[in-house]
C-alpha cells in the first residue's frame, strides 16, 4: 500500500510540474501517427501508461460528451486492459518483502534453513496474490533442483553461485536457474509423511 501511495504522489507532483503533460503529449503524438487513432482515445491510452484506469478517467471526462460510441468503447476497453505502475510494483514487491517477513513461519513449518527464504517468498505470494502462482513457483524451483542435481553429478568439480536476484548460475554451462533451487528432502517429508 505505501508503494501505491508513493507512486500516486509522485505522479501528482509530476503533473503539477508539467512533466507528465509533456510525456503524455509525446507518447500521444507517436501513437496517433503509428496507430492512426483518434485524439481522445489516444490521450487516454497514453495516460494509462503512467497511471491506472481510475486516475485516467478524469483526464478524458470533459471530452466524454463529444466522443462517439466507438471512441467511448476504445476508452473503456483500454481502461480495463491496463494495470497501474503502482499496483504492479506492489505485486512485484510482495514476494521480496515476504521472503523476510515469512521466514520464521517457513522455519516453523520444518523447512531447512537454506530453503527458508524461497519458501517464505512462496508463502507471501500465496497470501497476497494467490496459491496457484505460488505452486507454479514451487514447480519451477523443483525442476531447477533436478537440473542442479544433474549438473552436480555429471560435473562433480563444476562451480556455481547465487546471483543478486536469488537465481543460481551454473558456471560450467552458463545456465541460469531462475528462481533458485529448493531441496527435495523436506518437501517430500512435508507432503508425503510416513505412517506411524
TrEMBL record:
Pfam family, one: Nucleos_tra2_C
Keyword Membrane listed: yes
GO molecular function, a single term: nucleoside:sodium symporter activity
Domain Concentrative nucleoside transporter C-terminal positions: 78-144
Matching InterPro entries: C_nuclsd_transpt (IPR008276), CNT_C_dom (IPR011657)
Keyword Hydrolase assigned: no
The organism's taxonomic lineage, starting at the top: Eukaryota, Metazoa, Spiralia, Lophotrochozoa, Mollusca
Protein name listed in UniProt: Solute carrier family 28 member 3
Chain ranges passing through the membrane: 88-111
Amino acid at each position: 500500500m505505501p508503494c501505491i501511495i508513493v507512486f500516486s504522489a509522485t505522479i501528482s507532483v509530476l503533473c503539477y510540474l508539467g512533466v507528465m503533460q509533456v510525456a503524455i503529449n509525446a507518447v500521444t503524438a507517436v501513437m496517433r501517427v503509428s496507430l492512426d487513432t483518434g485524439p481522445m482515445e489516444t490521450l487516454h491510452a497514453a495516460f494509462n501508461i503512467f497511471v491506472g484506469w481510475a486516475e485516467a478517467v478524469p483526464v478524458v471526462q470533459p471530452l466524454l460528451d463529444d466522443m462517439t460510441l466507438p471512441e467511448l468503447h476504445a476508452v473503456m476497453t483500454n481502461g480495463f486492459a491496463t494495470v497501474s505502475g503502482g499496483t504492479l510494483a506492489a505485486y512485484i514487491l510482495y514476494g521480496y518483502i515476504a521472503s523476510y517477513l515469512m521466514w520464521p513461519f517457513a522455519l516453523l513449518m520444518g523447512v531447512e534453513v537454506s530453503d527458508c527464504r524461497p519458501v517464505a517468498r512462496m508463502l507471501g505470494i500465496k497470501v497476497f496474490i494467490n496459491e496457484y502462482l505460488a505452486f507454479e513457483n514451487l514447480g519451477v524451483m523443483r525442476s531447477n533442483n533436478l537440473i542442479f542435481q544433474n549438473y552436480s553429478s555429471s560435473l562433480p568439480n563444476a562451480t556455481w553461485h547465487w546471483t543478486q536476484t536469488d537465481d543460481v548460475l551454473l558456471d560450467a554451462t552458463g545456465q541460469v536457474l531462475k528462481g533458485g533451487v529448493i531441496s527435495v528432502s523436506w518437501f517430500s517429508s512435508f507432503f508425503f509423511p510416513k505412517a506411524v
